[in-house]
Amino acid sequence: MTQDEMKKAAGWAALDYVTPGTIVGVGTGSTVNHFIDALGSVKDKIKGAVSSSEASTVRLKELGIPVFDLNDISELNVYVDGADEIDGSMAMIKGGGAALTREKIVAAVADRFICIVDGTKTVEVMGSFPLPVEVIPMAREYVARELIKLGGKPVYREGVITDNGNHILDVQGLQITEPKALEARINAIVGVVTNGLFAERGADVLLIGTPNGVVRKGA
Ligand SMILES: O=C(CO)[C@H](O)[C@H](O)COP(=O)(O)O
């Protein structure tokens, strides 16, 4: 089974968590693209979606799924998104697709976070995947120096501008044993918009696509 087939299995399994007649929170990435395809198959049964990126918005609209502004809705029962790494406490590194800030905002509104991954994304200790940090452009070099003081090696993701008009630093070399503390510490640096640690608001349900089927964790 290929990695993409495992992503597809996890993406389609997330349909089980979609309640008819509701607006669904939709993340970003290649695994979520499979979930969007799945959502297209039930588009007449849902009210629509809230999207975490311009890329997902385009894909949702192409399938005829109405996309709502987050400011116009007051409740969201599920948010479905992928992850770059997820540990045993359901904390995640996200932002490989540079959509981390909008992802964190939509996740904050949702009652439940359904994380969909292929079997390569589960880890004991996060940090092999470089931690993305979205920064205000004029603060980039200052934030990079502060991240070095925390023991990381920040690398500017050249050529990438986020949907919010900002830059991304990918921080290598971190062994993330205390994800909540590190999430708060990095977010406290002036000029950081947010970082890709989703520990304070981790996943509630994890769907892992594996060659033996989809493994489910959480409730
Ligand atoms: O956080 C993300 C985008 O900002 C994605 O969820 C993460 O990068 C996983 O992507 P993929 O499903 O393509 O492996």
Automatic annotation (TrEMBL):
Q: Give one Pfam family, short name only.
A: Rib_5-P_isom_A
Q: What class does this enzyme belong to in the EC scheme? A: isomerase
GO biological process per UniProt:
D-ribose metabolic process; pentose-phosphate shunt, non-oxidative branch
- The answer to whether keyword Isomerase applies is yes
User: Which pathway does the record list?
Assistant: Carbohydrate degradation; pentose phosphate pathway; D-ribose 5-phosphate from D-ribulose 5-phosphate (non-oxidative stage): step 1/1
**Catalyzed reactions per annotation:** aldehydo-D-ribose 5-phosphate = D-ribulose 5-phosphate
Please report the name of this protein according to its UniProt entry: Ribose-5-phosphate isomerase A
Organism lineage reads as:
Bacteria, Pseudomonadati, Pseudomonadota, Gammaproteobacteria, Aeromonadales
